[in-house]
Amino acid sequence: MKIEQKLQQILDKSWSNIRLNREECKYLLSIDETSYASGLIRNTANSIIRSKNDNSAIILGQIGVEISPCPGKCKFCTFGDGHTKFEPSRIGQEELQEKMISFCKEGDLYALYLMTMHEYDLENFLNTIHYAKKIAPPTTQLWSNIGDTDLDTFKEIKKAGITGVYHVCRLGEGIDTSLKPENRIKTMQNALDAGLELYTCCEPIGPEHTIDQLVDNIFIGAEMGIYQHAAMRRVPVPGTPFAKYGQISELRLAHIVAVIALCTVTLPTMAYMGVHEPNQLSYASGANIITAESGANPRDCQSDTSKNRGMDMARCRKMLFECGFTNIRRGDESKIPLDFEYLVKTNSLD
């Protein structure tokens, strides 16, 4: 089947490690995800990402360390003040240790996110980092997923042991949330200025978002020197204002993953491509990050997501194996062969 010359030229640019521009990104996103052309886009992204990283994937962990009604009032988040049903709570050291051991016991966790609400107690968070640092193996990095933060605080967090920060200026920021887009972007820059690696995402993608909105969001991170980009579809969490608006398909999400991968893979700092929530279509379309979760989760009504939506380490290993990855990277970039014997060894077959 013959493909459009424009698409061929863009794919050739990607193979030649030439950065794509906004208009090319818009064009790729405009293509129907059920089409033959979409298959070419997804296969190209998949091949390029795997070739750059020796067919390796990474497993991240995330622990929600505290819950409270969040002043961000995000209409898609289970913790938003005004609609949350959660009471304030904070994870204790014993529970944190138990969850971390579960994540880290096989030594194949690349990094662990410690997540708070938008507003957080800095002293407690620093204590949590110090304690987590004692438990995490040397091959597992510690990352943070926290609210808007100034430069000096990020310097403190880095000194305590954090190496990377997840932060986004989300789709609909300032409209679907009570947060200011300029503050979100400033926080991302603060993290970089503090010497931390920046991980971001185009999220939370819903059926109503336009191609222009997606591209504008994608290029916030693409123009900042990110270490990781990603795509996440919005989950219609019961009880949230946006629950009634539905969600995009995993196939559409996989198409968006592929486009973001092609638009950012040439960045010298870009190392990995994420997707959330994990799905096999996206891992055959350019994604190579999978996340296991425990504790609080903004897409879940359970106080401990590991008992509901969150995947554990065994399921993460199995999904990566099924999607054809042959290596798991540790946080020091060393590799573990991902084969059937490794799944047996780590009790990851069920």
Automatic annotation (TrEMBL):
Transmembrane segments: 253-275
Entry keywords, A to Z: Membrane, Transmembrane, Transmembrane helix
Designated name of the protein: Radical SAM domain-containing protein
Organism, as annotated: Clostridium scatologenes
